[in-house]
Amino acid sequence: MTDKLQRILPTVQKPARYTGGEYNEIQKDPASVRVNVAFCFPDTYEIGMSNVGMRILYGVMNEMEGVWCQRVFAPWGDMEDAMRANGIPLWALESGCPVKEFDMIAFTVGYEMCYTNILNMLTLAGVPLHASERKGLENMVFAGGVCTFNPEPLAPFVDFFSLGEGEESTVEIVSLYDRAKQEGWTKERFLEEVSRIPGVYVPSFYEHIYNEDGTLKEIIAKEGAPGKLTKRIVEHLDDAYFPTKMIVPSTEIVHDRANLELFRGCIRGCRFCQAGFSCRPVRKKSPEVLYRQAVECLENFGASEITLSSLSTSDYRGLKELTDELIPYCEQSKVSLSVPSLRADNFSRELMEKLQTGKKSGLTFAPEAGTQRLRDVINKNLTEEEILETCRNAFSGGWSNVKLYFMLGLPTETDEDVLGIADLVYKIILAWKEHGTAKKRGLRIHVATAFFVPKPHTPFQWEKQITVEEYLRRCRLLKDHFYSKSIDYNYHTPDISRLEAVMARGDRRIAPVLEEAACLGAKLDGWDEYFNNDIWMEAFRRCGVDMEFYTTRGYGEEELLAWDPIDVGVTKKFLLRERRQAYEAKITPDCRSGCAGCGANCLLKERECDE
Amino acid sequence: MSKRLLFEKTGNGIWISHLDLMRLFQRAFKRGGLHLKHTQGFSPRAVVSIALPLSVGVESVCEILDFELVGQDDLGFDEIKTRLNATMPAGIRVLEVYDSDVKIKHLTHLACTVTLEYDNGIPEGAEEAVRALFARESIVLMKRGKNGPVEQDIIPMIRSVEVSALNAQELLLDCVICAQNPSLNPAQIVAAIEANCPDHKPDFARIRRTRVLTEKGEDFR
Questions:
Q1: In terms of CA atoms, which chain A residue is nearest residue B14?
Q2: Between chains, do B17 and A16 touch, taking CB under 8 Å as contact?
Q3: Is some CB atom of chain A closer than 8 A to the CB atom of B18?
Q4: ipTM
Q5: Residue of A495, A505, A506, A507 lying closest to A451 (CA atoms)
Q6: Residues of A in contact with B31 (CB under 8 A)
Q7: Helix (H, G, I), strand (E, B), or coil: what is residue B111?
Q8: Of A137, A144, A202, A559, which has the fewest Cβ atoms less than 10 A away?
Q9: Which CATH number is A4-230's, of 3.40.50.280, 3.40.50.2000, 3.90.79.10, 3.30.1490.20?
Q10: What is the pLDDT of residues A301-357, one digit of tens each?
Q11: What is the dotted CATH code of the domain comprising A235-359?
Q12: How many of the other CB atoms lie within 10 Å of CB of A511?
């Protein structure tokens, strides 16, 4: 007879995402496995399988003898309903075993709006939500990823966090667990030992005390617990593990292609960008290693597309060498090479022309702000002339599709800055009228504005977020100044960005709100189909937590911040200096024009930053 | 002459959709170092053609895929099969590779089995009722058409249905049905039972394509 799950599969959307069995999936003999790790991605299969970090760590753990790392994703709503109706607990794809039977449960957290998915997945797995309710070594929940640079909203639910890059620390953590399990340690003993691994943060070892005005007064570390938690990095990326035998999904995923990471960190220092600061110092892979990995990846994947990824591809020092080798290879093997995040410099233009064989995809810019003054404030070193010059070139080359991304609500923003966006768009239209060659097709300009979210570990970490009403007013103001029919204007839903701000800079008092929201049914909050602001408002109300405290209030420079104990390399002193520079609309040149002294180089022991 | 391969789609492979399966094969050819002929056009695409799209959730041991390689004429059929099977996901397996100039239009019929699962045992009289149902002169069902639901008589599209009890809980229907022009989705056989024998509605039904046939009832190759 057909089992329950096989009977459910015909009734849900895209059933292939729930069955595993893809080519290159890792199967192991359960008898040879001492530590089972359920690696959970708190979003759907399509999103999770597109995540390079997850693919790397999946490989890292499965390379370990006696360790089997299996994948778990958040089910879509139809599957969740069926699971609940049939009493099927959340399972891992490789073995089909329930998550509850796993030794360790790992989460990678890259987006604040997936916090409720973490809670929902634990609930669907039948694992107690609170770390304190999980008494033994089994079901040890740990988490990493860029959001865990302020892990406090998740503190009560997670046993420990692994901060920074996981290639090395994950091996140390899982090996320690292996020993703990064999020697029959208590959970307390394991947590004590694991907290000695650099980059590991055990939230239960710290107590947060608040002032009467609600600000943080003190963070008391339990005896022996480190006062400062420094993120881990991999110094030599060339030698670091990189999975060239990657799982090939049998169903379509978001980024359905091979993916090559050029370098980590960023030399630019856009003041709103969390990744730009928290992923420093800058470390690159050599073009030779990348070429080899690209070929191995492609041959193993059978992909028809490969993308070069990084925070700012044009800043990769070996870009010419790499593409000189890679372009001919790709042409010969009928693979399309995509190079996103190019800056508008000369080499990039040449490269773009080389890559354009036939298809003309759109041109995308992220000026983020409409006036030069505000772009200087945020240190986005992209000038109007650069944008227009690139557009002119592209238009005369036959392009007729431009995407522009901006933010509204940036610090010091005035209506003049908002209208500066309309002005810039107008100038692009004029450039097209003058230089466009494919006039028949007509020009399409897509403009999108996001609602600025201040993030921890950036120079804007203290900033106010403007109110939702004010954001919408600015959106309308902008909209009223778009006169051309060529413009499609979209703006982000402010409710999500406001919540994102709360989660990003939240402290432990946000945890009960998360739990309440999850309990009320919040899940897949990053998806329009599921996001329900009313649930969240109700959760904040029930918990008596004021959102404004985390959004429109703004944080004091003297204030103790929930993420202060976490050291991502960039010093608070530097962030403050950058904040001052921002208010004076002074730019800080990129790292190659002169080291700005952010402090992240101190994380390197054996080499120089951006060497 | 274009090449043809016979493959099976079983186990968890049955949940892979038709479009995903095309991409899966394109990638498997690439992984195997087999150079598929590409479309000549604005965005060249590797050409693979799967004869009769299989519904998601239906098992098959007789799927047909046509392809052409560029160069590589010296490659043997077994070599192609081995290379493809080396990188297949669970449930997809190439059974045979061969040359064929028999046109797909000659694939007119399908043999399939429909297994009706009754969790509490096969109800009394179910076997007879199902047999009697398919002996009728017509069974009219509603079918989704391009302009909304349309009535369709499925009997002309059924060549034969043999009913037997597989065990105490499963009733097996061995069917031969029309594959093209018009084609009958075997799920309609289950739908016919659900609509006409409500007392004998199964708890679950599994469908498996077993053979692809020509008009004469011979194996299509």
A1: A16
A2: yes
A3: no
A4: 0.93
A5: A495
A6: 23, 299-302
A7: strand
A8: A559
A9: 3.40.50.280
A10: 998 899 999 999 889 999 999 999 999 999 888 888 988 877 767 777 778 777 765
A11: 3.30.750.210
A12: 23
